[in-house]
Design goal:
10 helices; 5-stranded antiparallel sheet; 330 residues; globular
Length: 330
């Protein structure tokens, strides 16, 4: 048997969504008969078990809880945002010598920071949206933000180091820009402002299985007119947004370009096991990568599991293969 420790939560802005994803991942992991799964929530500066007790890591990859010692063979970090997608947890596990599935610390950190992601994408020759970086909320930063708005008139203001829809604001009125800039700085020490582009929002699942890199999709996020895909719009029960794994009207060339860019990004940014890569398809600017999620959501509305299932890939088998790969490569 392989002892798996599923870590979830994280106490960041996406803590509650991480728990929902963990419910799905735990169920699928338990369908593998060779995996023994223990779940703990990263909460209040510790690791909390289902009964409220706390566990801790000891020497040799042992996780002690309730007087028992659980030898951890592999960690599955189902944590969106801090500290899972930031690379912090991966660095901690690497110090302890414990294998884990998903991207390593550097790839996680590079993809979580939207500025670093854009720098890598540009270096790899992958088109992305025009943007400017605001590093400080002083007079110089505000001036730079207003100049960018005056150039494009319609922008997204985004916390640089946060999830795909946390600390993100659509701004089309100049007098709203600095207030939204201030709000974004509440989530991150740096902010980016991007040109708003008329687009379709497409997503692919880039994943490794049996030693091969695969790209499933694209799927599409179809939003009501004039609605920005905020955190609230994404997860609200009253959301008018629709997702589909069979988008209509895409040309073979568009699909080929999306898949090629996804492969190039996965390899160039040193991703591993699984990712969701989000694209804009613009009538004027073509295919652009929007962002990369190094541990995609696994909630009932999440695109990653839907895309794999559409490709007839069993999620239980996929997660099991990731665990076995991590253990084998230790």
């Amino acid at each position: 048997m392989i002892n798996v420790l599923l870590l979830c939560g994280g106490d960041g802005a996406e803590h509650s969504i991480s728990l929902i994803s963990a419910d799905y991942a735990e169920k699928k992991l338990r369908e593998n008969r060779d995996l023994n799964v223990l779940r703990a929530t990263v909460h209040d500066h510790g690791f909390v078990l289902s009964d409220g007790s706390r566990g801790y890591f000891a020497d040799g990859g042992v996780f002690s809880h309730n007087g028992e010692k659980y030898k951890v063979d592999c960690v599955v970090p189902v944590i969106h945002g801090v500290p899972g997608e930031t690379g912090d947890l991966q660095s901690f596990l690497s110090i302890l010598g414990i294998p884990f599935i998903g991207c390593g610390s550097e790839a996680s950190r590079n993809c979580f920071n939207k500025i670093t992601t854009k720098l890598y994408l540009s270096a790899l020759g992958i088109p992305n949206t025009p943007y400017t970086m605001i590093s400080t909320e002083n007079d110089e930063g505000k001036k730079k933000a207003l100049e960018f708005f005056d150039r494009y008139k319609n922008v997204y203001v985004k916390a640089a180091s946060q999830g795909s829809s946390v600390g993100c604001y659509h701004v089309s009125e100049r007098n709203e820009l600095l207030d939204k800039l201030h709000e974004a700085f509440g989530f991150s020490s740096e902010v980016i402002i991007e040109k708003n582009i008329v687009h379709r929002e497409l997503e692919v699942a880039a994943y490794e299985m049996d030693g091969r890199l695969n790209v499933a999709g694209p799927g599409e996020i179809i939003m009501p007119d004039n609605v920005f895909y905020t955190y609230e719009e994404k997860y609200s029960k009253d959301s008018g947004t629709v997702t589909t794994v069979e988008p209509k009207g895409l040309s073979d060339k568009d699909i080929e370009t999306i898949c090629e860019y996804a492969r190039r990004a996965f390899i160039g940014l040193k991703l591993r096991d699984l990712s969701r890569i989000d694209f804009f398809l613009s009538p004027d600017e073509g295919v652009l990568i929007n962002e990369i999620n190094t541990f995609p959501g696994m909630t009932p509305i999440s695109m990653f599991p839907k895309l794999l299932e559409h490709e007839k890939i069993d999620m239980a088998a996929f997660l099991g293969s990731c665990v076995r790969r991590a253990v084998k490569e230790k």
